[in-house]
TrEMBL record:
MF GO annotations: structural constituent of ribosome
Name listed for the protein in its UniProt record: Small ribosomal subunit protein mS29
GO cellular component: mitochondrial small ribosomal subunit
Family that this chain belongs to: Belongs to the mitochondrion-specific ribosomal protein mS29 family.
Keyword rRNA-binding applies: no
SUPFAM superfamilies tied to this protein: P-loop containing nucleoside triphosphate hydrolases
Pfam families assigned to the protein according to its UniProt record, in alphabetical order: DAP3
Main subcellular location of this protein, as a coarse class: mitochondrion
Keyword Transcription regulation in record: no
Keywords, ordered alphabetically: Mitochondrion, Ribonucleoprotein, Ribosomal protein, Transit peptide
Length: 464
């Protein structure tokens, strides 16, 4: 029987009764400790169990400290004198800024421009369509290329500067991927830099896809959208703050607990909704309608109302009434407001309306009423039955709209400008890359289509 059996048994320790035998059996300078507190230092002097534990922790800390890697920090730019550190980094592509004077230049077609948006730019405040947002994130900066249709649109807006919006109600049409959203953004940026009042809705689908709350109003017999109306008011004030401080209400605005007298500036009107947001959000549709009426009668500034994914307003909505019957778009407050300006039922004394259809929204195809009004038979990919019904109300809201067709193909100069942008940000290619051959190959493969030229051509290259 081993002498150490009693150390491992359960119950009280019998070390006191066997201490004489243990002292004879164990060698000198040796101590007994459990495995938990064993220090691992068998050759050192005798220490207590607790001391061995602390010594081991100290050794572990020293070892851990020795294994810790030092902190590396970048050198200041002043110390990087070697030419190796001065190579051009991706994204540093210097080209002229987007300005109205550069667009009107006779030789501006095919020239790339950089959009440098200020803090109150429509691009920052209203947002962008998803397709443009993805490309601008890849480019790290918003770039655009002037096309011939860009100059035509700018000339159209120049004529509408002092005319009623009844004369300029345009919808951008064309084949999928031809650049309609880019053209609409160029028109918005041009007007923002030409002292226009800009109202830009980049994602018209959000007006009808039931992503914002709605409530029925007995007075107007419409389904109000207070959340979306409040967002539009807030963004309109941010983008057009200078103009809103000069334009006033033409008549009294009666709210729930106060009345805004005629002559109150639009900035003060919108501030009422923003300051008391929790109570005034429900009244945002009423305030938005009053602000739009004030913009209709004023003549200080021209007004541009631009809507992307415009075809969604004329199709089916995802909103439902209490009987779960789909609600028509003209029974929703914000889509009805836009459609009234598009159809000419309401107008600005100075300004224009521009919409853009989008084929990327498969859940919101172009409805028959809008196809008939814009004569979009060439975009029809299905057989039209003579027995298909048209909604007469939607036909009335589409009356008077004029199509502005965007060319299906890029010209060589326009494609070269786009190619120069992606080459300048070093999105593809390397030293010795055959850029000329690649440009002609991608232009031919895409058949000149702007979207395919970038996504299926440049970005799908093995050298991208």
């Amino acid at each position: 029987m081993s002498l150490l059996v009693t150390l491992g048994r359960a119950g009280p320790s019998q070390l006191s009764t066997n201490n004489i035998l243990l002292s004879r059996a164990l060698p000198p300078q040796c101590f007994v400790e459990t495995r938990r507190y064993k220090s691992g230092n068998s050759e050192g002097p005798m220490v207590s169990a607790q001391a061995g534990y602390l010594q081991r922790k100290k050794d572990q800390k020293e070892t851990k400290g020795r294994k810790r890697f030092p902190t590396y920090r970048t050198l200041p730019a002043a110390q990087l004198d070697h030419p190796l550190f001065h190579s051009e980094a991706p994204g540093h592509f210097k080209i002229p800024l987007f300005e109205p004077s550069r667009i009107r230049h006779p030789e501006s077609v095919g020239k790339p421009l950089e959009i440098s948006p200020p803090e109150n730019d429509p691009l920052r405040i209203f947002g962008l369509p998803k397709s443009l947002l993805v490309e601008f994130r890849l480019l790290s900066k918003p770039y655009t290329v002037v096309r011939q249709v860009t100059k035509d649109t700018v000339d159209l807006l120049t004529e509408a500067h002092n005319q009623s919006s009844l004369a300029t109600r345009v919808v951008l049409t064309g084949n999928p991927g031809c650049g309609k959203s880019f053209l609409l953004l160029q028109a918005v940026e041009h007007c923002a830099r030409s002292k226009w009042i800009v109202i830009y809705i980049p994602r018209g689908v959000n007006l009808v896809n039931s992503t914002t709350p709605y409530a029925y109003d007995l007075r107007s017999q419409l389904y109000l959208q207070p959340g979306f109306s409040f967002q539009i008011l807030q963004r309109m004030l941010t983008v057009n703050k200078k103009a809103f401080t000069e334009i006033t209400l033409p008549q009294d605005l009666i709210l729930e607990k106060q009345t805004l007298k005629a002559g109150t500036t639009l900035k003060e009107v919108v501030d009422v909704a923003i300051v008391d947001r929790h109570r005034s959000t429900a009244q945002a549709p009423l305030i938005l309608d009053a602000v739009m009426k004030a913009l209709e009668v004023q003549t200080l500034y021209p007004v541009l109302l631009a809507v992307d994914e415009f075809q969604a307003l004329y199709g089916k909505t995802a909103y439902r009434d209490p009987h779960f019957v789909p609600i028509h778009s003209y029974h929703l407050s914000v889509p009805r407001l836009i459609m009234e300006y598009a159809s000419g039922k309401r107008e600005f004394k100075r300004g224009a309306f521009i919409g853009s259809i989008s084929s990327a929204q498969t859940t919101n195809p172009i409805p028959l009423e809008l196809r008939d009004a814009l004569e979009l038979d060439y975009l029809d990919k299905r057989v039209i039955s003579p027995y298909e019904k048209r909604n007469q109300i939607l036909l009335d809201y589409a009356a008077g709209l004029k199509p502005l067709e965007v060319p299906a193909k890029l010209s060589l100069d326009e494609a070269a400008g786009i190619f120069e942008v992606w080459k300048g940000v070093q999105a593809f290619g390397k030293k010795g890359f055959p850029y000329d051959e690649a440009f002609l190959a991608k232009y031919t493969e895409s058949s000149g289509n702007a979207r395919d030229f970038v996504r299926k051509g440049i970005l799908s290259s093995m050298d991208a």
